[in-house]
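Issue: copy button drops trailing tokens. Both records pasted manually instead:
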Amino acid sequence: MSSLLESCQLIDQSSAALSTVAVAVAALSCEAARANLSAFDLADSGDGSVAKDDIGVSSDIKILLNGSKLAVSSNKGDDKFNTNSFSKIPVLYGNVREAVKSLHSVIRVVSNSGEKFGGKVLHLCFELRNLGESSLERVRLNLGSISVEGLKDIFEKECLSEESLRNGVKLAVDAELEKDHVKLAKDVVLVLGIVWKIVAWEAVTAFFVLEGIEGLNEKNGGKGGEVDGGHVKSEKKKKKKVLLGRGTSFIVEMIKDRLMSKGDGLEKIVLEFLSLLDPKSPDFDGLLKKVKDILESNESRRIPKTPKGTRDFAKEQMAIRKKAFSIITKVFERHCATALDTPAFELKETLTGKYGEDSKLIYDLADQGGELCSLRYDLTVPFSRYVAMNGLTSFKRYHIDKVWRRDNPSKGRYREFYQCDFDIAGQYEKMGPDFEVVRILSEVLNALNIGDYEIKLNHRKLLDGVLDICGVPPAKFRTICSSIDKLDKQSFEQVKKEMVEEKGLSVETADKIGTFVKIRGPPLELLSKIMGGTEGTELLKHDASKEALGDLSLLFDALDKSRCIGKVVFDLSLARGLDYYTGVIFEAGFKGGVQVGSIGAGGRYDNLIGNFGTKQVPAVGMSLGIERVLTIMEDKAQNQAVRATETQVLVGVLGDKLWVAAELVSELWDVDIKAEYKVHKKVMKHIEYAIDSKIPWMIIVGERELNEGIVKLKNIETTNEEVIPRSKLVEELQKRLNPSN
């Protein structure tokens, strides 16, 4: 076996061990710094936007710290946590894990190839440097909190620094540039050795912050001690014990068992400690196995996960969602629509053949007794089924509910998500309903105040006319539309390649399609230009496209008079992949900094209801991509205070008398005041809760207030307190909550 492969295997094995042990050591530092755990709340968002390994690191940290009284889950941790040395742990350590897996996958299939190994090894080297620098920050942070004399001097003898890491990486880069892959691997082994030493020192310093030198003597008579000139001496004061996490406490006890009998000098103890975290040490495998056992044991197994493509919503997110749904519902009801609800699943035959190439994304359910059912893919087909089943000839409805698609999750794309639909079915004045649904989409996006957006608009018959003029066989219209629909994500050359190589069009036909689908601009101006240009001459000779241009003329005039045409763009590339569209189609896109894709879409579908075996009922509708809109709203709310509840008053009872809280809060609930209560003997616990929950008013009642028949009313923002008679509590509180009444 070659020297290169041996070095790469050593790097692979040692780095994999480091990616586990370093996380355990970082958990110790979190406790040593009294850190909060907010940076480790990386639950899977469901859309692939958070790296899997970052989530794994966060989960491991939380397992190790489960039950800790030092690392807290709120924002009340030490300010030191705000440094990158803590907040970047999930990303930096997750990157190392990802790089290790990447190298390992190459080693498994390639016997000896410098070209294959070189890039992977160098990438891992960069990530190891980042981990080392992060760990070194925490070493210095821990040293600043240690009262053990001589420890800093011992550390400085090691000459561990960012410069030593960077020099090692520079040597590795030079070796890669020279294509000397054997030297590259050896240089990375050296960098890895430096990182191991730094992580070992992080463990040493974190241990001494948490336990002090006296912690090593507790199992040997329980005597405390301090260090003087590198030796342990007895001391009268014993270090106050604190409750560590279940995982970290086990690791600390392991270290004590190993070190408590290893000499009486600090330097000897430290050297023994460092050797415990040396991968070449005979005891290292035992330590690694113990850490893995903690992380993988059934007792402390990581929190259950949601299925891929789904997510939970915390209280702050729910507050934003509730507000958004309220705004959307208000707009829908302004346009006099009726609410409708339909089953979460439909007969499979109801959904089959309605979605073109996207039909493969339908979630089929197992046969539960003779009926083949599927989860609904959208809200439009169930609406059409309802209209047909009930023999309706006109119906204006809105529906806000979940739908499911077996899609590949990505940024802003989920497998379970909400849609907010508004549809108008029935015979109305020509283009009247089409105008209204485009107007509604514009109203909703304006009301949600997300920022700049545009609504691309086209006509399916115009697109069909273009395809016919270009020589596309009618049987391929829908599949070519699916290709054209990708132009917002791919270049025309990529779409052209798909149309020619996968769908059998000639190059000439694809190029001719390109001359049409690249046309976009302001609706009235572009329509006038098309009608008077070469393209218009061809389109006006075609019956379908001529009809479409007439429809668009009526629609653009109505949108112009309704003062919302400024957000509309006439775009001949818009295709909308769903098979059931027959007329106007449109799609809204956000133009701000957050890249989320389409945020709303819709169109006319005159034949869908009739497909259920009843008479044709024309219909048009729009659907808001609410999950993507909420992503934008959540991004905007990051620097704003979001109230998870609408609590107006906190009833704070000092002591343990639940009946007092029950009596007071019930009086407030009876008059429709939004109130909650707490029973605790410390007044600051009540005040802190009110501040954290952004509750504006607080009622304070203790023994003195009960005896004197009074309550204290506190304004949390101004901190002013007033004493008011108990009998006038509701009256006085209502005056302050509704000063205009």
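Record 2 (pasted manually too):
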Amino acid sequence: MVASSVLGFPRIGANREVKKAVEGYWAGKLSADELTKVALEVKKTNWTSLKQRGVDLIPSGDFSLYDHVLDHSAAFNVIPKRYLGHNLSPLDVYFAMGRGRQADGVDVPASEMKKFDSNYHFVVPEFSEETDFKLVFNKALEEFTEAKNIGVTTRPVVLGPVTFLALGKATKDAKAGFRPVSLLPKLLPVYKQLLADLKAAGAESVQIDEPILVLDVAATYEKEFITAYSELAPVSPKLVLATYYGRLDSNLTFVAKLPIAGLHIDLDRAPAQLDQVIAAVKPSNIILSLGVVSGRNIWKSDFQAALKLGQKAVEAIGAERVIIATSSSLLHTPVTLAAEKKLTPEQQDWFSFALEKASEVSTIASVLSGSQDAKVTEALEANKVSIAKRREFERTSDDAVRKRVAAITPEMLERKSPFAVRKEIQVKQLGLPKFPTTTIGSFPQTQEIRTARAKLGKKEITEEEYKTFIKKEIESVVRIQEKIGLDLLVHGEPERNDMVQYFGERLHGFVFTQNGWVQSYGSRYVRPPIIVSDVSRPGPITVEWSSYAQSVTQKPMKGMLTGPVTILNWSFPRADVSREIQCKQLALALRDEVVDLEKAGIKAVQVDEPALREGLPLRKPDWDAYLSWALPSFKIATAGVTDALQTHSHFCYSDFGDIFPSIQALDADVISIEASKSDMKLLSTFKQYGYSNQIGPGVYDIHSPRVPSEQEIKDRIKAMLEFLSPDQLFINPDCGLKTRAWKETEASLINLVNAARWARQTYQ
């Protein structure tokens, strides 16, 4: 019999219960016990829902109040010294690591965050020779027991030891040349204890996640993998090694020889690897878990395509050695389609969210097992009809959009003059001082703003009343910026619900959900729009608001747009046409918007691309193919203007060293980057490559409510000037201020402006 499996499930709750509870705890409105109770109810609902849908291998241990990598660090006592000694509870230490803390005499910044092939941020573990691993608590065991107590048998999920170390970084006090993976001998005894406890509690198997295996760097960890699993296997339940987001490639050679009971592979991202994997595991007793139902998109699975892959494995190694699974955790998908009431019946039939995907793996496994159940047969036939209807819709296209993409010329990618020429023109037009100050775009989205938007949606206020409200908000934000003393202003984006959704709602080719929430980090959830057809701009999107903002100030106003690559990567894209075509359609729509902003008198436009690096394929041989359309898409969007318009772009949580020539090739006049939590390590790359355009490395972390001191910002400016010339440097926060409160925002920006004034006096 073929079993079914889900690798992980959204931990946010069907109605965002976890977000509300976590933020309630932060605000002092909920106790720790009340927060724990909400979390337990969400976990119970997840487990029982998956059981009701016929999933055989239900995950536990995948839930988190903030981030599962942070959970692992806390459980294994990987807690940086700066968070200790403040008389905080373990829960408050945990949240301080994730978001910082500035209260009751405690002032600590948040830990660094990074991404791994998605818009989900994980908290980076910090290691040194002094790291003292110990099992503070066994989260996997706790959740296994909780599920068992309500009659649900689960398969615990644990982050693998090699990936845990590989995701981390050395602390500042670690010795030069220290590699976190060198700590494996110290770490393994703790893993042995965790896994042995699970075995004693009755866990038959454990899913142990090692996504690092789909990276090129994993080849350098072969010895560590062999050592780790040779030690863990004898004391553990059956170990199912899970890989996802990519292909194993040559790493399969040593993975297939590890003493593991099962191997999970992602056949959504890398279906071509199936034959190679089957050949490698066939001589062994390794069970093969096939990720045929995508954990990354929201399209209904094509059962016939999935069955074809599953049948190939069954014929090669037998049904008892095959599991049908999601390609990865369903963390990246909304909870359920049942909550969507505004999608048309046709649109509803296209999609599948987390709970629906659970039903899909169960159905596919049942068909492969030879089930004669009428419900299974009915589901199989209904899927055929759904897929046929979707394919019929996909054949429609917008000829004008397709022709415009085909007519793109190399000249459309280039500004009229080199940067040095443009800079002189822009200096005269903008009149900015040395060390100009600005922000990344958004300002706090208050409850009043959200209420007004909700009232408009419910038709409780008119469009004109809403516009009047938004104009008042914009003018208020402008006045605050003027009072603080910022140089290059923004309108604050009060009209925007989300930096991607807002644009999607004003472009043809998108559909939207009511409750399609997906976790980005901590309690920050987003509702990705869905691209369903060719994309075009029916009219101006932001011109009205930026123009109004410019009309109420003498200072220059910066227009704010989200770039084509980011809109694509932070949406659920089409599956029937290439990402390149979708991105270039978006680029042409945004090109028109940038041109219209300049015509309306806007002298600087920021086109944000925080997802540019995130979208880079995991395997280096695949990079050129991606960059060959991602970079031109940005340039198409920004190159249609005169030399006088200053173009900005923003990048966050990105390691640029490996693609720095590509960043240079974007030819933005000014780029801003996350730098406050990365120890300025990015800036050495800019110096190494002789970057000549202007740059604004973030001087403080906006993902934390903590207010940086003026001296902190001065120290960061001094550090930046070791790598950059004074003429290059803009002074700005790390990212947009949408999620922050006004009190901390104003205090932080006042310190930022004062630090910039100090820099002007010091570096004349």
